[in-house]
Amino acid sequence: MDTKYIFVTGGVVSSLGKGIISSSLARLLLSRGYRVTIQKFDPYINIDPGTLNPYEHGECYVTADGHEADLDLGHYERFTNIRTSRANNVTTGRIYQSVIDKERRGDYLGKTVQIIPHITDEIKRNVKMLGNTGSYDFVITEIGGTVGDIESTPFLEAVRQLKWELGRDALFIHLTYVPYLHAAKELKTKPTQHSVKLLQSVGIQPDILVLRTEKEIPAGMLRKVAQFCNVAPEAVIQSIDLPTIYQVPLMMHEQHLDDIVIRLTGADATPEPDLTRWNEFLHKLAVSEKVVNIGLVGKYVELQDAYKSITESLMQAATYLDHKVNIVYIHSEKLTEEDVEAKLAPMDGIVIAPGFGQRGIEGKFIALKWAREHDMPTFGICLGMQCMVIEYARNVLGLTGANSTEMDPLTPHNVIDLMEEQKQISNLGGTMRLGAYKCALRPGSRVAEAYGKTEIEERHRHRFEFNEDYREQFEQGGMKCVGENPGTRLVEVVEIPEKRWFIGTQYHPEYQSTVLEPNPIFMSFVKAAIEYSDDKK
Ligand code: GLN
Ligand 1, atom 5: nearest CA belongs to which residue? Predict the structure, then answer.
């Protein structure tokens, strides 16, 4: 069958969960046996979100091919197990850069380069790029932003044209919000009607409406929305707030979202989705009662989305281990020698978060020293691993003033230093060590035991590295370099074998942990935390 294109737009307000609806539809279509991919178009001018701070846009996700991507790609992978790539996340900046490069090359020689048709054509080319590989039955394209934003206009025009060209092979899903006014005790559909009108005014008629709501919308009201918005009554679907986003695929299936998509696009018929393993996960999530307390030591504690992949990975692992995870955010900037005991002692394990720059660093050292001395399961990720190395250098190896040259370029002991190839680089965008690299694990190490093998591949996002000159001293001292890149010998994993579970990874295992395939290292860490908690009792 021809590739079908599903466009997902949003209206009324942002943060309605277009990414979750797109991921849920992808999950359902995959579970019916279709080949599916999801991509996101972001209307901002940054080339990628790699240079955005988490306050702007939450976590920066990294794909296996080394693209710094919107955090929605993390949802896509967690829901679907699909490996996304650079082609799955395109920004206005990338579109303009490509058009301007073509203009300089002379590709448009003699022509005035304009938003229409040149920018819109470039958007269309990118929308169809994955579909044209012939590898997919469905390409789901989420358009970032909200209908009516100036920034989104070229994207909407491009997908309007695509619908005109593709006919039945293209379909629009519009996600809106139905607020509940507590004072009036009423649900209000007017914002939805306005938002659909805005969409219609740019020539797009949605085929399916998904209404995000806190309360069940009565059938009569759904019918009214269908009538006023010119949509088939069965194609108005409600998305009620649920205890977990992973129930959303089931809620969408109950209302036949997947059937409607298949029918409207004329896709080849397939059996009902096989959600056995998905349901098993949800069952465990619902019934487990025992709690494992994990402290997440970082500087973005007020931001839910800053450590999204890490908190999801912890939740997945705990669920498979029949526990609920209670993540306690511990502000690294506020942690002191005086209160570290009170804050960490109630935990069963701690994660030292990734990050950049000096802010909050000293608190990470305080947490690490306490956890190491009290033998609490501790997991350092990227900057967290670098902090483990620095703390060990200062407090165990006696290397006074040890640091990363990121924090102190003049440190007497640069145990973490800039990679050689990084020294020539001056641009900050997209120039870190990014994407998946192989890592060889030392046989017999705890980390090798965790993965159950000695050759792994995980994703990276950093500029600085463990300094090879100090390797021998660490090995002698008791912190072992148990994972390294097989080609360059760069140190990727450190651990202290005499501790219960004290491991730091230069890579980010959270980018490769999904609902159906939790990352083994998170499983091993949470298991150690559970055992520690049992021993404490
Ligand atoms: N700032 C550190 C580096 O660039 C760690 C980065 C991270 O934690 N992602 O090497």
Answer: 383
- Give the Å distance between the CA of 463 and the centre of ligand 1: 6
| Helical segments of 202-243, H only | 219-229
pLDDT in tens, 276-309: 999 999 999 999 999 999 999 998 887 778 899 9
Q: How many Cα atoms sit within 13 Å of 313 on the Cβ side?
A: 24
| Closest among 419, 496, 501 to 460, alpha carbons compared | 419
Report the C-alpha gap between 340 and 399 in whole angstroms: 23
The pTM of the full predicted model, rounded to 2 decimals, is: 0.94
At position 377, the amino acid (one-letter code) is: P
Give residues (CB < 6 A) around ligand 1.
354-356, 382-383, 406, 461-464
Q: Is 484 among the catalytic positions? A: no
Predicted confidence (pLDDT) per residue in 458-482, tens digit: 999 999 999 999 999 999 999 999 9
pLDDT in tens, 367-426: 999 999 999 999 999 999 999 999 999 999 999 999 999 999 999 999 999 877 777 777
Contact status, residue 381 vs residue 508, Cβ threshold 8 Å: yes
| DSSP β-bridge partners for residue 173 | 8, 208
- Per-residue burial over 158-191, b if 16 or more Cβ lie within 10 Å, else e, is bbbbbbeebeebbbbbbbbbbbeeeeeeebebee
- Does the active-site annotation cover 382? yes
pLDDT score of 303: 75
**CA distance readout (Å), 446 to 329, 348, 520:** 26, 18, 12
Residue of minimum CA distance from atom 3 in ligand 1: 462
pLDDT score recorded for residue 424: 76
Tell me the CA–centroid distance for residue 74 and ligand 1, in Å: 19
**Ligand 1 center–CA 359 separation, angstroms:** 13
Tokens of 239: 């998305």
DSSP string covering 354-386: P--SSTTHHHHHHHHHHHHHTT--EEEETHHHH
Catalytic one of 60, 229, 382, 481: 382
- CA distance linking residue 184 with residue 165, whole number of Å: 45
pLDDT value of position 6: 98
pLDDT tens for residues 92-113?
A: 999 999 999 999 999 998 899 9
Mean pLDDT for 423-442 is: 86
Distance 175 CA to ligand 1 centre (A): 36
Residue-level pLDDT at 537 = 79
Two tokens, residue 487: 């080609």
Contacts 24+ apart (CB under 8 A), 408-415: 413/470, 414/467, 415/389, 415/390, 415/466, 415/467, 415/470
